[in-house]
Specification:
Number of strands: 23
Low-confidence stretches: 1-7
Radius of gyration: 57 Å
Structural class: alpha+beta
Number of helices: 10
Shape: elongated
Helix content: 25-40%
Strand order of the largest sheet: 11-12-23-14-19-20-21
Amino acid sequence: MSAARSLPSEDQFLCSICLQVFTDPVTTPCGHNFCNQCITRHWNSKVKCDCPLCQKVFRTRPDLCVNTFISEVVAQFRHEAEHKASSSSSSEQQAAKPGEVPCDVCTGTNMKALKSCLVCLVSYCQTHLEPHLTVPVLKKHQLMEPVEDLEARMCPKHQKPLELFCKSEQTCVCMMCTVLEHKTHEFVPLSEGCEEKKTELRKTEAEMQQMMQKRREKIKEIRQSLEKSKAAADSEKAEGVEVLTALMECVERALKQLTERIEKEEEAREKQAAGLIKDLDEEICELTKRSSEVQQLLHSEDHLHLLQGFSSLKAAPPTKDWTEVSVPPSSYEGTVVRAVAQLEETLSTEMKKKNLFDPELKRKRRFAVEVTLDPETAHPRLLLSDDGKQVRLGDVRRKLPHKPERFSRCPAVLGKQRFSSGPFYFEVQVKGKTDWTLGVSGELANRRGEITLSPGEGFWTIMLENGNQYLACEDCDDVALSLRFVPEKVGVFVDYEEGLVSFYDVDAAALIYSFTGCCFTGKLLPYFSPEFNDGGRNSAPLIICPVNQTV
């Protein structure tokens, strides 16, 4: 024990190659001591064998023997150091668990490594780390958090620590690389290179977060769209059930009425035939009785009885003339056709009452907007109501300032409101008119002189001419429209993004016409023209109506 207490300091037992306490120490012919493995590896990398300390060159490779004295002293030193460390911190030491880096020096149970040395390429537990914290030479070594595979942190060509980052080739290099393969390149310390990469990573992370956020928003959008679609499907199913139930009820009523009418007619015919047959049977009975009396007189041999009986039988029997009496056969030709026509008329009336022709109109009315007429755009002969909701043609052309926004020849006026996105909808009463034009106009469309109502000129409109001809004003030529009912109120629906302008018969909830694939540029304004009065027959105004959302 006295020898152990008089042991030299630890730095006297360090190998000058690995800077660790000797392992299998050997002595060279020049008297210097090294770890057997360290000096062997050193000579294997050299053409000539020399001493790493005094640089003495040996002609032949010396035979190395273990220095028994130093081995014993080192072993005693290790034992004393481990005993001391174990007694002072055994309660703090923990065995390495799966996934944790073990100490490379421990024998038996591997303790959990606290640090890894980039110079020694060894991971140390608390006990074996002590020299790196106390020995001056070892304190210069670079320590880091424990990691496995320390060999990967060494330059594969020069076996030196990877300490620099080559910005030219974007790779980690050692000090030898800077004067050899990468001597013309730009280098920065690993810490600086890491900061640059962290900046790029932060930018990449921000971009990825933004991309993820966009995808979350897209998921939300898809889910909302799905929810809307499901709600629309449920509404459509409910509306379909209501529509088809109403149709079925109408058909069932028509069938019942047809059956009852035919059965009633057949019952009356059967009753008539039964009465006639009864009368005929009664007369047959009476005639049979008289025929029997005639037969008796014919066979009588009593002359007096025959003559007396003949006088009573000579009178005409109580019968009537059946020549013109008949029961005509049933004829139901055209009955079903008439019933179907009546059913069709009934269904049309019911549908018109319940807005069943186009359920889409009900949804489009939800996009109703407030529209008022703009007097600054009105033709000089147009008269607008104070609330900006009605327009009709007056008899006198008023003297108004000439403005580019005012229609000079066409009797038209625009709405004040301008729309450049989303869907919108408004309704106009056309009841009592024989001519009118409705739709939307581009903000920059020409309003001076003669104008052409067509999409190419910035107008999407339909019109009524001569009280019976409905037209859609297309580019190539006006399209004649066939309407089942005469509209009294027209709905105008526009979807800016979809490029759609649709017109509806509001009371019949029937689609009149749609402009599709429209290319809108700039803002859109509602367009109204009450047209000319036609001798007073077309003097009724166009009226912008409030939209009833409950219908």
